[in-house]
Design goal:
Layout (H helix, E strand, L loop, with lengths): L16 H8 L9 H56 L22 E5 L7 E9 L8 H7 L15 E9 L13 E8 L2 E2 L8 E3 L4 E5 L8 E5 L12 E3 L5 E3 L10 E4 L4 E2 L1 E4 L8 E4 L3 E5 L6 E7 L14 E3 L11 E3 L23 E4 L11 E4 L27 E5 L2 E4 L8 E6 L10 E4 L9 E4 L10 E4 L3 E9 L3 E8 L14 E2 L2 E8 L1
Length: 526
């Protein structure tokens, strides 16, 4: 038997890699290229994922840019609203010559506003402002187009508005792949102006015929009053501005300002009239009556006195420099002792409680039967008369009877407006009703005997309505409003019926209203 003898200390020879692989590889095949395939597969997977991610990133670029534009443009629209509010609140006039107060000037209101956010760059705003007398909230485009005031760039409005509809568009450069306007944002809001329609007492007291007016010598107690030529009777001179209040006193308007002592015409007993501190005394009370004169009141304040304001001299034909007196020599429609007060002097104590109907524009004038004659072809809007006795001395031609709506809210329709004829020459006494002209269009109402079946004697009285524009009116069966017509005898407006226009000349026994500034109805338009 053959033995293999190993030498002690000999080292076995290592097997080759190929020999190892040949034992591990099935069927004895080599695996050359396996790692390369794995690497290529890994690269392909990474490439596919990269392409996928690139698509995702690219797909998000446009929305991201669009979202950025959206953010910029909404901020721009808000900046447009802010810029508009700034201009609305600084559209101010000059200080009032009498009161020194500063009011808004509608002529300075903007129609449109444009600008860039921050003053530079591509992010911009464009604002359109529409103005209204009543709120445009919840109104459709047709209503808004028909009721908006006319706004002229550079000269604003011709009358003061109560509301502004602000439409602000924010814009920026177009996003690639979209239209230029895509991503722009539009905001709408309504600004309520702080307004009051309270009439400001203070007007000129002209002599009858308007050739002269009354002027105070100073604004201190003891000052006298005299006649000056009408050519010198400027409205901006505080020495010629007067107001007649509910206590029958005639004030020098400038002295009614805060910090001043109100001064009133004072006198009784055939003396010169002077200005003295208003104290409610009967020597400072004057009632307007027929003959266009102011008559004093008796010491018990229960009736007229026997004295009137004027020069006291019926022979005077030139009044320049003549002093104002209180004397028993009372005129009747004559320059030396009768007057034509500007409507802004006021209505004294006249109003619904005295059965008088006061106009809101000419707020010192009331319904009156022309010449105290129910047969006149038109009625007159005359200086409001007064009655210190509580009703017995106010002449019938200034008392008009109708029914106000309950609580002065809403309307009362189908009613008559009546006077009780108490002594027109040549006409019988009795009840006469205001009668609208039968013909269409504008015309002058007359007085005819009251008849329950006469449709043109039916009137709708509206007190406080849902909107101020529709409030405090008298409307006939044809839908026409009572308003102010042409002047008669040079000074007094005639009563007319005409197309309703919501103006102050068509409002009667209307209280003053006020509203505070606010910004509301803020929304984005699609």
């Amino acid at each position: 038997m053959r033995k293999t003898v190993r030498s002690v200390g000999s080292v076995p020879q290592p097997r080759t890699i190929d020999a190892v692989r040949s034992r591990l590889s099935p069927a004895g095949r080599p695996d050359d290229g396996f790692a390369m395939l794995t690497a290529i597969l890994f690269i392909m997977v990474c490439a596919a994922v990269s392409v996928l991610m690139l698509g995702v990133v690219v797909a998000q670029v446009k929305p991201t840019v669009f979202a950025a534009k959206n953010t910029h443009t909404i901020s721009a629209a808000e900046a447009g609203v802010d810029a508009t509010l700034s201009q609305l609140r600084t559209a101010l006039g000059t200080p009032d010559a009498i009161t020194g107060k500063i009011y808004g000037d509608p002529r300075k209101l903007p129609c449109t506003i444009t600008g860039a956010v921050g003053g530079v760059g591509t992010t911009r705003y464009a604002v359109t402002i529409s103005y209204f007398s009543e709120s445009p909230a919840n109104q459709d485009d047709t209503w808004r187009a028909g009721n908006a005031f006319t706004c002229t760039p550079g000269s604003g409005l011709h009358m003061a508005p109560s509301f502004a509809l602000i439409t602000s568009v924010g814009s920026d450069v177009a996003v690639a792949g979209y239209g230029a306007s895509v991503g722009n944002r539009t905001l709408e809001t309504i600004y309520t102006f702080q307004v009051t329609n309270s009439n400001i007492d203070g007007g000129v007291i002209y002599s009858f015929g308007d050739a002269w007016c009354l002027q105070a010598s100073a604004t201190t107690a003891g000052a006298t009053v005299s006649y000056v030529l009408a050519a010198d009777c400027r409205d901006d001179d505080p020495l010629r501005m007067w107001s007649w209040d509910t206590h029958y006193a005639i004030h020098l308007s400038i002295t009614d300002l805060v910090g001043s002592t109100p001064l009133c015409l004072t006198g009784r007993g055939n003396v010169l009239v002077t200005l003295q501190a208003c104290n409610g005394g009967t020597d400072q009370m004057f009632s307007w009556e027929g003959g266009a004169r102011w008559r004093g009141q008796n010491s018990a304040n229960t009736d007229y006195s026997t004295e009137c304001l004027g020069t006291g001299d019926s022979t005077l034909t030139v009044l320049t420099g003549k002093p104002l007196k209180i004397s028993p020599n009372c005129a009747s429609n004559a320059a030396w002792g009768s007057f034509d007060p500007d409507p802004r002097v006021g209505a004294g104590a006249a109003g619904d409680s005295t059965n008088q109907v006061v106009n809101f524009l000419e707020f010192g004038r009331c319904f009156d039967v022309t010449h105290e004659n129910v047969l006149e072809p038109s009625m007159i809007i005359y200086p409001c008369k007064q009655d210190p006795s509580g009703g017995t001395r106010l002449l019938w031609n200034h008392k008009w009877y109708y029914t106000e709506p309950v609580s002065l809210v809403g309307s009362f329709s189908g009613q008559q407006i009546m006077v009780i004829n108490g002594g027109s020459t040549g006409t019988p006494g009795g009840q006469y009703c205001l009668t609208a002209p039968a013909a269409a269009g504008s015309g002058y109402p007359t007085l005819t005997p009251c008849s329950g079946s006469a449709p043109n004697q039916k009137w709708t009285r509206t007190a406080k309505a849902a909107s101020y524009a529709d409030s405090w009116t008298f409307i006939d069966a044809q839908g026409r409003c009572i308003g102010l017509g042409d002047k008669i005898e040079g000074s007094w407006s005639q009563m007319t019926v005409e197309t309703c226009n919501h103006g102050p000349e068509q409002k009667w026994n209307a209280p003053a209203t006020a509203q505070s500034a606010s910004l509301d109805n803020f929304k984005e338009l699609s």
